Task: inverse folding
């Protein structure tokens, strides 16, 4: 039979799809499978051509028909019942639960660019002798301070201090940076001229500020390594180039080392106090950093500088060492993790205690698996909350406001607290709905009893382990806070009911 | 008579269609409106469970007409019993039943 070119092309396309699908079919059945499908397609195509119904619409239908060969071929390869059972049962397993949470944690870390905020907390501080550094931060809702006054006060504190060798003030703002081809919203900080000297930093390119710059070079700026890479394309001749900060031209004199981070990594331009227009700034965006004299404790410096700050009219001054700042987040996570684990174990024990009264005897191995799974699940969930809260708030603030808002820190802490509580509640609830032996999530929910007979009988929900280890009775109404879900272990005589063989003739 | 197998509505519809004389995959798809990804796996399962029997047509006939051979399906005894019990269980199935096919295309 001579086929016209259109039919030949369609047959060739269908053959290609069917041959591809046939690779899924086990080899012994492949030829017969292909022959049946090809026979069907061939007859259909010729029927369409002979009846004059071959058009673009029917050709599309034919293509859809050929795509159907893939599921058919897949069912040849995989047993339908086993696959359906695996699809239903796998999400119930403890391994799947842990893998899913771990996957979520890793995805979140990857999406946020390997969690830069958290990583910066683990890096060694980029300052010389950081144990002698401390910073004095100001607090107060919507309180503003005169920047110029703060820099003058810092110079006065340095002269009068017995506990600090050097003092430098800082004040940061969101700014708009204009480059030849684009404009970006970023963060800049005004700092005393001895700021980098106090921290013990050296420039990666060019130089950093010196006290003489305050009079000789008030328009000088120092940029971060990140900004140098992103906007100057790592140009080694960047020194002397001009950068526009809030429409004020500034001359680049140096680039900071890549490891340099002060307070938070988003500050990208550093300027001297006399640069641009001096304004009043929010208390949370201002502060001072000091290098303590040798053998002076943080408590001694704290006492002296609180006095200085209060005398200068600064409310709620707070002093912390840099080391504690760097590990604050980690400590917070560890604190809540330990607290959550203890709380979870205490609550979980009381639930199991309810079951114990009904003679649930778990072997040491099963008990270890039960608590190991709970601990690991909770740890991973808390890690997810921790990474999410810290990275999300920082990124969201930069996207929405173009800067790291002063409320980001407290908001991240509160978000972590709330999400950690939700995670712990879910972890406990999930644990309670798992088989005490195989840790599978229980299923086949059935409502048992009659509400009207509540006083005479039991009313609630029953959940069953798909492997037949036991039943969980969940009362609909608890008569006291000591009434827990009741676990009933099933003995070997129940096993035949839970055989995995499907009844025959149920396609 | 053996206890009739309990089958799903889709399986019953396919059996009903085959009993009406639509005996190969494309015809069944055309009549039931079900996609090929449903029809063919269902035919395999029904065949595995001995409710259907698939037979290749005589290859000599196909060769003489210069076309590939087709595979035809027909109900087994168990398939007929299963269909009778399914029609009792799904009364609306009778309304969905296709007309008997008069002659093979």
Result:
């Amino acid at each position: 039979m001579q086929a016209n070119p259109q039919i030949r092309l369609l047959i060739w396309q269908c053959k290609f799809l069917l041959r591809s699908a046939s690779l899924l079919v086990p080899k012994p059945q492949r030829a017969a499978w292909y022959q049946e499908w090809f026979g069907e397609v061939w007859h259909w195509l010729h029927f369409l051509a002979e009846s004059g119904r071959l058009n673009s619409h029917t050709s599309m239908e034919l293509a859809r028909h050929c795509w159907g060969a893939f599921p058919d071929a897949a069912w040849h390869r995989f047993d339908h019942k086993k696959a359906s059972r695996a699809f239903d049962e796998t999400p119930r397993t403890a391994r799947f639960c842990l893998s899913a949470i771990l996957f979520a944690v890793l995805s979140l870390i990857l999406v946020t660019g390997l969690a830069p905020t958290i990583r910066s907390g683990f890096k060694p501080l980029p300052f010389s002798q950081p144990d002698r550094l401390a910073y004095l931060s100001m607090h107060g809702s919507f309180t503003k301070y005169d920047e110029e006054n703060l820099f003058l006060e810092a110079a006065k504190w340095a002269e009068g201090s017995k506990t600090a060798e050097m003092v430098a003030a800082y004040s940061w703002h969101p700014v708009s940076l204009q480059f030849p081809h684009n404009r970006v919203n970023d963060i800049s900080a005004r700092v005393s001229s001895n700021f980098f000297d106090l921290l013990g930093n050296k420039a990666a390119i060019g130089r950093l500020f010196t006290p003489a710059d305050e009079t000789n070079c008030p328009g000088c700026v120092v940029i971060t390594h990140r900004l140098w890479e992103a906007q100057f394309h790592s140009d080694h001749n960047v020194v002397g180039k001009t950068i526009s900060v809030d429409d004020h031209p500034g001359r680049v004199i140096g680039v900071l080392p890549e490891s340099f981070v002060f307070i938070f990594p988003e500050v990208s331009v550093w300027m001297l106090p006399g640069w641009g227009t001096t304004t009043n700034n929010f208390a949370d965006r201002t502060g001072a950093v000091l290098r303590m004299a040798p053998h002076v404790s943080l408590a001694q410096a704290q006492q002296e500088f609180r006095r200085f700050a209060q005398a200068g009219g600064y409310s709620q001054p707070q002093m912390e060492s840099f080391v504690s700042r760097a590990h604050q987040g980690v400590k917070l996570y560890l604190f809540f993790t330990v607290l959550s684990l203890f709380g979870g174990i205490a609550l979980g024990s009381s639930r199991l205690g309810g079951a114990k009264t009904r003679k649930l005897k778990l072997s040491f191995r099963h008990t270890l698996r039960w608590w190991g799974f709970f601990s690991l699940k909770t740890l991973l969930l808390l890690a997810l909350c921790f990474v999410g809260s810290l990275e999300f708030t920082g990124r969201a603030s930069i996207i929405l406001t173009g800067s790291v808002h002063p409320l980001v820190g407290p908001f991240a802490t509160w978000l972590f607290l709330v999400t950690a509580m939700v995670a712990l509640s879910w972890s406990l609830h999930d644990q309670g709905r798992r088989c005490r032996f195989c840790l599978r999530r229980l299923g086949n929910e059935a409502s048992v009893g009659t509400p009207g007979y509540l006083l005479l009988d039991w009313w609630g929900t029953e959940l069953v382990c798909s492997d037949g280890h036991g039943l969980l009775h969940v009362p609909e109404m608890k008569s006291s806070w000591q009434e827990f879900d009741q676990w009933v272990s099933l003995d070997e005589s129940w096993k035949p009911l839970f055989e995995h063989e499907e009844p025959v003739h149920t396609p | 008579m053996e206890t009739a197998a309990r089958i799903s509505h889709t399986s019953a519809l396919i059996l009903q269609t085959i009993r009406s004389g639509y005996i190969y995959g494309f015809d069944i798809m055309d009549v039931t409106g079900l996609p090929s990804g449903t029809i063919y796996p269902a035919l395999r399962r029904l065949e595995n469970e001995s409710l259907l029997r698939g037979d290749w047509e005589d290859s000599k006939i196909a060769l003489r007409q210069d076309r590939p051979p087709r595979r035809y399906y027909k109900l087994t005894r168990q398939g007929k019993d299963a269909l009778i019990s399914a029609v009792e269980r799904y009364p609306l199935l009778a309304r969905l039943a296709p007309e008997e096919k008069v002659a093979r295309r």
About this structure: The beta strands of chain B are 52-56, 71-75.
